[in-house]
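Hello again, I could really use a second opinion on something today. I owe you a coffee for this, so here goes:
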Amino acid sequence: MEHNTTLDRLNAMLNYESSPEEIAVVINTLPELSRKVYDVIIKGLYAEPGFSDLTWSAIATSAGITHQQISGVAKKLIETGLVYDEPYEGFDLDTEFNNNYVFVHALVHDRGF
């Protein structure tokens, strides 16, 4: 039980000040589906740090999962601080699946790791 408390505390503090080691601990403790989605995100971030044209819909397709599944995984990954999404013209995660866009970023990519 103590491990979960420590992990929860670490998850809550991931941000731009987090060390690569702290981030690695969280990545290595992700559940299988979350890790699969996270890996798809990392592979899809091909340009300079801070740029993303990845959408949750594209990530779901690449990971071979449903939009309902990606919605749950997305929320969990965002809660960890490993990823965040950036609404395009004010749209949010719930509206993306109606052909609006939310671009997905990863902390390690934006920090240049």
About this structure: The domain at 2-110 is CATH 1.10.10.10 (Arc Repressor Mutant, subunit A). The longest strand covers residues 83-87. Residues 1-11 have pLDDT under 50 and may be disordered.
